[in-house]
Amino acid sequence: MTKTNGKGKTASIFEEWQYESMAKEYGLNARQELFCMYYLRYQNASKAYRLAYGCSARVANVNGSRLLKKPKIQGFYRWYRNVVCIGAGLNVEKAEQNIIFLDSIFATNPYHWNKPYQPF
């Protein structure tokens, strides 16, 4: 059984259930999950924390690295990274290199620490 998201792509209900159960299994709240997603995208704990929690740069610098050291965050991040890479048919190490490379080339939304985050 499948359902369609807003962009016309289909996602299996089993995959959604598996994701939700893994987040619960690791004991993460919604903001911690969001932190993991942003960390996968930007590879920067301070930036990921600031985007997920909407706090100042000073707080993000301290708490981003602190949150990243927690075993439940590390475990869920590894699981999530593997799911994203396998789903895209990529090798994990190669995918991380590509994400960093593409971010450096297509920096369409530069991030300024002294300003609040503004989406596109």
Structure report:
The model is unreliable at 1-11 (pLDDT under 50). Helix content is 66%, strand content 5%. It has one domain (12-105). Strands 1-2 form a two-stranded antiparallel sheet. It has helices at residues 13-26, 30-42, 45-53, 57-68, 71-87, 92-105; strands spanning 2-4, 10-12. It is mainly α and 120 residues long. The radius of gyration is 15 Å and the shape is globular. InterPro entries: Terminase_Gp1_N_sf (IPR038713), Terminase_ssu (IPR005335). It comes from Trichococcus flocculiformis.
> Major β-sheet, in short?
2 strands, antiparallel
Number of helical segments with 4 or more residues: 6
The share of residues in extended strands comes to 5-15%
- Termini gap: 34 Å
Q: Give the uncertain stretches in residue-range form.
A: 1-11
Q: Would you count the extended β strands for me?
A: 2
Based on the structure, what is the oligomeric state of the protein chains? single chain
What structural category do the secondary elements indicate?
A: mainly alpha
Q: Helix-strand pattern, N to C?
A: EEHHHHHH
Write the layout of secondary structure elements.
Blueprint: E1 2-4, E2 10-12, H1 13-26, H2 30-42, H3 45-53, H4 57-68, H5 71-87, H6 92-105
Antiparallel strand pairs: 1-2
Organism: Trichococcus flocculiformis
GO biological process, one term: chromosome organization
Protein name: Terminase small subunit
